[in-house]
UniProtKB/TrEMBL annotation, chains A, B, C, D:
EC class of the enzyme, as a word: oxidoreductase
Entry keyword annotation includes Calcium: no
Domain GFO/IDH/MocA-like oxidoreductase intervals: 121-232
EC number from the UniProt entry: 1.1.1.18
UniProt gene name: iolG
Species, as recorded: Flavimaricola marinus
Gene3D superfamilies: Dihydrodipicolinate Reductase, domain 2, NAD(P)-binding Rossmann-like Domain
Pfam families hit by this protein: GFO_IDH_MocA, GFO_IDH_MocA_C3
Keyword check for Cell wall biogenesis/degradation: no
Top-rank taxon: Bacteria
Record protein name field: Inositol 2-dehydrogenase/D-chiro-inositol 3-dehydrogenase
Length: 322, 322, 322, 322
């Protein structure tokens, strides 16, 4: 995602300058810098965060670095767009929240870009607009062609893939999770089987999530919000339809890049506005959202292991994140 | 179509008895008779029409026999469901009309089954219901996988395929044709190229019809009625959708049998009611409709040859067919 | 459904004769008999079943009568098409199975008409055909405009509505259920809330079922079979599409009658063939299927009450039903 | 469109600077300049074109100014993105072509943004890729909610609306027009009726175009390319689907802005690259394309008036535009 962010900064964010590309692989950093007009490259993120010619930071490094880098940005007083997760450990998320609160201002925006996807925007608008009646359920299907790694597990489906659903569902419904139950079917091969989760919210909604990391047929993310008087569902976007050989067909994307490109651009523009104005964007995810995603994912893994409905135990929400 | 009609009588028309199967090929007749429980077989249609144990006749023989067989049925006082066309010659149609009028009652129902297709029924209902506003245009696409014969011509597309559109459009719009213009693109092979027709009606509508007898990709019939305040289009019926190999697809039929099976059943039930009650069905095609289809087809062939807009010259409509 | 069956016999089953209409309300019985040409009416079903001029019976009476009437038919040696459920009590189903086995031949066909719906037929064909790979999951959504009665409960959603899904999923997947878990969201009014069930099969599939009896927006039944290499989903059948007021729309049915009319006709034709040949139809539901539906429904109610995953305990399958 | 271009420059074209906003209404110019960060405003375009701090020009002024402003840009050696039409008069287009050829390099890119729309891009790719076989026909429907002015005429539909189709069809098919025939149905009110055109190309394709400026129901542009072995059609893009009140629906746009926003951005980025590199973009429209659109539109108006098929007489294509 680092290269994608560099490209978006260079091509879609007039007024933003890709200043430094930081990567342990300096040749790769230089390649990106050359392609997208960065001023400099670096290996050590801490020194980058400290530089005077750096106003803001985008973190797209390995997951375990998200917390320390976010903390460093807060300490340096720099705004940071951190790819999800903030951390897979709720306690680490709480630590970032504590630092952020101590700093007196929000610094961290999380890369839950689904909130900026037009389908979910229309879904939330419909719910807020009232025509669907009160929300009852939200059904979610998240399907990838194949896992990035052969040793991907069901637990990783919950901690690495499902957080996009955990976050966008909370965002659309405006609620928190109370419990989670998890199920898995059996595959005939060694690939990771899908995970199906059923979540109850504190407002009495039901949420179902299918994570199918080896769906084979395409990259396909679907959601349906069921209200008391109607439903709204994401619609697969296709620009053309082909009729051939007794079949009428549209195409799926192979991964999330094409599907969510416009969402990434919107998100990053909102981050740019955050950097310029200091006002945290209305629909962006903050550290509390990152904490919630980590907490429900942790409960989800426990539920998968135990086979039991598992409560989602959350710290009280600080006024700071209200 | 004869076998299809025999099957429909046997399987979908309780109260009707397939009495006699008449075919020049007596073995084929006997096969159908055995399969669908007919009482007898015959070679000569005239003697069949005359039999006392025959109440009604379905004509699905070669086109050139439609007029003489219809005339024989009228003469014998038997109701007949005659496959389209009544004749390709308007004068022959007028002759049947004259005989029918002389007999004092309608005897001939034409097999323009599209009128009984649910899509067109909903289209006509929407127009009559008024929500679309006044009709402005109707667009029609009639596509077959391939022609029945290699020597099929553009003129045959107009005289043999287009009459289904000629009839159902008149039926839906409730109007007559004033002029027809015809065009053909060029194919890269020896197959018959599509024909595109533009028709003006006496009520100021425009009608476009594409006949594409070698569309290759599937059997596909589409229509769209454009009104002053909205449109209604036929929707391709599919019972399932398959997601495979980066594609989401539904299937086309290979020919009209599957696509219009329900329409044939409805049509033949209406014919049965006509036989039983003597009341000509509200939506069925009669000899006047057959005459209109033949007249516009004849003008269409002339238009194709001349490359000019051609007037559709019609005899006055007898009160009998009002 | 009794009137629907009478109509189907009269209009769609040549060779079948609606002999007697039996109803506690004799005026209603006479009305149906007159409309559909029945020979006689009756109040007491036992005497009807015993009559010599009755070859076969269709049971569409209140649910609690299904077991005794099926037993009476078995005893009388008459084939019976019994609307679902055979019974809501597994023990009653076992009793009918015992009687049927003692009689030496299958007599009871259950009215799980979904098996005859074109969408499910194509789904099963795709699975058997192998292109989807091994089945992993089946997702099901069953939505009614509103409940028949105001005092409808979540338990009734499981025992009265879900059996259609319980049966057709078993049929498509060719498996039995191992466990069931049930959830309910909260509504803002007094209407029954939806029920979501997650079932594990003995072959390692996962099945989700949403029963939403007050979905408000339309009668809408959906299913998706997810295989290891692709998916197949039911497609909503619509014959026309309307463009008006910035919207492109198709219509939903208001209830199951329109949606499943063709399935009922196919099912009843298969019953007619069963009566005529004595050969139990390949895809029809038998008493074992009725027992399975009752057993999983009972476990489902227990799961809804307890909030726990509940095992589906089944008697061994008799060789007779293999 | 001027404000839209200013917005795109400011928001979507990093590296481009909105330098001067030129408008006869200086207050409007100042408003745009303030909103999008322009350096200056002006009333007289000639002086703007001449300024040293102006590298390139976007012309979105009234149609009759397109030719003189394009000529001024060529004379000043500045690249210009000129909204369609270059001129409605073929002779004016030829004059611009002459000036451009005399200058030795292409200066003018025309704003036929449809070429940059993803649907048409996929259509052209499919045709070039060969899977559809040779192109036979292209059907086009261009529908607006309502005309901008009450006195809009059928001739204006051809000269002002249809050029988008004239251009994109030539672009997709890679051909020129040979003849055009035009038809109009009658409306029941004073609004301009739709125009239907049938065009033959020099390569034997047929093209149909419906321009319906008062379609009422939505902004809806459709196209279908029919090849010898299959077809590809534009698909209506919708991000969500709503189920309410027995209807399943998606939304139409109200005008072209939303529908073609991404196409405008792509087009203007290509213009930016043209300005920076001097290399005319592969898929952009040039003055020859503008001449072709004007010529066929002129023939189309003549065809509408005469009711006759009208030849499209074109000057020979200069090597310069090959
Ligand atoms: Mg993300
Ligand atoms: Mg016919
Ligand atoms: Mg049933
Ligand atoms: Mg334009």
């Amino acid at each position: 995602m680092g290269a994608d962010h560099a490209k978006i900064i260079a091509e879609d964010l007039p007024g933003a300058q890709l200043q430094i590309v930081c990567d342990m692989d300096v040749a790769r950093a230089q390649g990106l810098a050359d392609r997208y007009g960065a001023v400099d490259v670096a290996i050590h993120p801490d020194s980058v965060i400290a530089r005077d010619d750096v106003d803001a930071v985008i973190v797209a490094s390995p997951d375990f670095t998200h917390t320390p880098l976010s903390l460093a940005c807060i300490k340096a007083g720099k705004r940071v767009l951190c790819e999800k997760p903030l951390s897979q450990l709720p306690d680490e998320c709480l630590a970032v929240m504590a630092a952020e609160q101590a700093s007196g201002a929000k610094h961290v925006m999380l890369g839950f870009m689904r909130r900026y996807d037009q389908s979910y925007i229309e879904m939330k608008q419909a719910l807020v607009g009232g025509t669907l009646g009160r929300a009852l359920m939200m059904h979610n299907f998240h399907r990838n062609v194949e896992t990035p790694a052969a040793d991907f597990t069901g637990a990783m489906a919950i901690t690495n893939s499902a957080p996009h659903e955990f976050d966008v569902v909370r965002h659309v419904l405006g609620t928190e999770y109370a419990s989670i139950t998890a199920f898995q079917p059996q595959r005939s091969d060694a690939l990771v089987a899908p995970v199906i989760m059923v979540l109850e919210t504190t407002d009495g909604h039901l949420v179902t999530i299918e994570i199918n990391n080896n769906a084979a047929y395409g990259y396909d993310v679907r959601g349906e919000l069921v209200g008391e008087s109607g439903t709204i569902a994401t619609n697969t976007v296709a620009y053309s339809r082909t009729d051939m050989k007794l079949s009428s067909s549209t195409r799926y994307e192979t991964d999330w890049r094409g599907r969510y490109h416009a969402a990434y651009v919107r998100q990053n523009r909102d981050f740019q506005a955050f950097v310029e104005t200091g006002k945290f964007p209305d629909i962006a995810s903050d550290c509390w959202d990152g904490y919630c995603a980590a907490t429900v994912a942790q409960a989800g893994v426990e539920a998968l292991v135990s086979g039991m409905k598992t409560q989602v135990e959350m710290a009280p929400k600080p006024e700071f994140y209200a």
